[in-house]
Amino acid sequence: MAQTFLQRLTNLLPLRFRRGAAFVPVVRLTGVIGYTTPLSPGITLATVSKTLERAFSIKPAKAVALIINSPGGSAVQSHLIHQRIRQLADENKKKVLVFVEDVAASGGYMIATAADEIFVDSSSIVGSIGVISASFGFDKLIKKIGVDRRVYTAGEKKMMLDPFQPEKEDDIERLKAVQKDIHALFISLVKERRGKKLKGPEKKLFSGEFWTGAEAEKLGLVDGLGDLRGTLRSRFGKNVIIRLIAPPTSWLGRRAPGIGVEANADWAARLITAIEARFLWSRYGL
Q1: pLDDT at site 282
Q2: 26 against 128, higher pLDDT
Q3: pLDDT tens across 42-69, in order?
Q4: What is the distance between the alpha carbons of residues 217 and 118, in angstroms, rounded to a whole number?
Q5: What is the Cα–Cα distance from 198 to 255, expressed in whole angstroms?
Q6: What pLDDT is recorded for position 131?
Q7: CA-based torsion, 74, 80, 85, 90: positive or negative
Q8: φ, ψ (nearest 5 deg) of residue 26
Q9: Domains within the chain, CATH numbers bracketed
Q10: Which of the listed residues 48, 88, 184, 265 has the most CB atoms within 10 Å of its CB?
Q11: CB of 130 within 8 A of CB of 207?
């Protein structure tokens, strides 16, 4: 009882006055990257930058831990967040430890590679180092119901891949060329961060395939199996202080908004965004 009371009293002290206990701030990155709905704010640089800055600015911290649970999303936002994590880590001379929950795939894995070490559960889903673009084709539907599509543009490629127009081979080839460039950047980033840890043929590693955490460890995509609390206690001692750094809130107590779908956005656009987000999660059985 006395030890419990003493521990509680110690927890009230500022970090600089505590002795014998390491401190590790934790930032949770959960959701689809770049996809934002009113009830489910996604992960973007705008929504996470302040929280990351707070975590890395804590001088007594031994390291910064990131919990990632994301099926991916925007390649641009994934890269921007990856870069910001590395900038903050280098500026503040902090080690970055990533802990994957259900999934860190595609853009989620791109963010994870910003870490010095990546830990997963044996059943976590990891990988999907590739690029995907999905859409719908409505040209046969509008023809069937007698609807005319009227769009006026300046620039012959301005309507490229319009879902209300039949697909064109040239447009598909152009899209695949863009995907190839993004994929090459992704591969380069993984090689830079994981280096000699990677095992197995590149054709397999960078095919877009995904694996369980246990298999990903064998392939060198992650560093080990372990949960956040157990790993940090093993690394920094049983008295390690683990504190979640929450996102900033407004004066009404709501999470500060990032850049996403505005409040007056069309509900049809919101619905499509929600469907796309659901599709990304469902690819990994979640």
Answers
A1: 63
A2: 26
A3: 789 999 999 999 999 999 999 999 999 9
A4: 9
A5: 38
A6: 78
A7: positive
A8: -125, 135
A9: 19-131+196-282 (3.90.226.10)
A10: 48
A11: yes
Burial 165-195 (b: 16+ CB within 10 A, else e): beeeeeeeeeeeeeeeeebeebeebbeebbe
In whole angstroms, give the CA distance from residue 144 to residue 165.
Answer: 13
Q: Give the global pTM.
A: 0.77
Give pLDDT tens digits for 64-83. Answer: 999 999 988 899 999 999 99
> Which two three-digit tokens encode residue 230?
């157990």
CA distance 240 to 117: 18
Which residue type occupies 96?
V
CA distances from 19 to 25, 26, 270 (A): 17, 20, 50
Alpha carbon 69 to chain centroid distance?
Answer: 7
Q: How far apart are the C-alpha atoms of 177 and 184, rounded to whole Å? A: 11
The residue length of the chain stands at 286
From residue 102, give the alpha-carbon distance in Å to each of 30, 44, 71, 123: 10, 19, 9, 8
Q: How many CB atoms lie within 10 A of CB 94?
A: 22
Instruction: Quickly list H helices, 102-249.
Output: 107-112, 139-144, 169-194, 202-205, 213-218, 228-236
- The pLDDT score that the predictor gives to residue 175 is 75
